[in-house]
Design brief:
The protein is mainly beta. It contains three helices and 15 strands. The termini are far apart.
């Protein structure tokens, strides 16, 4: 209860691996405008900043490895995030509902897993770069990202969860790999998309029913 009643705090500098801000600053966390995470933090706790709808800026430390589940869920004020290159895991619902995120999100070349619903409903995103280090994209990871216009899924991605890009109605181009075809295009994206599809050159086999029900595909290479 160290900071109970401190409702006017607007900026905090602290480690991110102890407690969520809602526990440390129960009367101020929703109004925080700036959060600076101290060096030495390797793991952000679950729900670290969840619900901080005003914060528009977060400073990540070098050496951060894991962004915990729901770490920034509902942080609608965030305009952009610069994920450090040491991060290897983006947890479940880590940035879910961050509708203020705009432009491109660069996932560092070292991230191996993007958790389920990690960027769910980030409708302002127009682009995302998925590096070849990523092996797993969780279910609904980018579902509802209506601003995305293109997606390139690298060969190294071995598993793509169901509905990973469902509701991405703005897509006009996708590059798919074997993992997507195994799951079925309509189970990863939406069968109703009017979209151009390029199958990666590394794909040796197109599985049965890979494009079943996709009546609006405009072009497949």
């Amino acid at each position: 209860s160290a900071f109970i009643g401190c409702s006017s705090i607007q900026s905090v500098t602290l480690r991110g691996d102890i407690l969520p801000l809602s526990c440390l600053f129960p009367d101020a966390y929703q109004n925080l405008s700036e959060v600076i995470i101290l060096p030495g933090t390797e793991n952000l706790v679950s729900g670290f900043m969840a619900g901080c709808s005003v914060a528009s800026r977060v400073s990540f430390p070098d050496g951060l490895v894991n962004i915990g589940e729901r770490a920034f869920m509902g942080c609608t004020g965030l305009k952009d995030v610069d994920i450090p290159p040491c991060v290897t895991n983006i947890g479940v619902s880590a940035f879910s509902g961050c509708t203020g995120l705009a432009g491109n999100v660069g996932v560092p070349n070292g991230v191996t897993s993007i958790g389920a619903s990690a960027f769910y409903d980030c409708s302002g995103l127009t682009g995302v770069v998925i590096p070849p280090s990523v092996a797993n994209i969780g279910a609904s990871a980018f579902s509802g990202c209506t601003g995305l216009t293109s997606v390139d899924i690298p060969d190294g991605v071995a598993r793509v969860g169901r509905g990973a890009f469902s509701g991405c109605t703005g897509l006009s181009y996708v590059n798919v790999n074997a993992a997507v075809l195994k799951q079925g295009f309509a189970n990863v994206f939406d069968s109703s998309l009017a979209v151009r599809v390029v199958v990666a050159e590394s794909v040796a086999n197109i599985t049965a029913s890979a494009f079943s029900g996709c009546s609006r595909l405009t072009d497949v290479t």
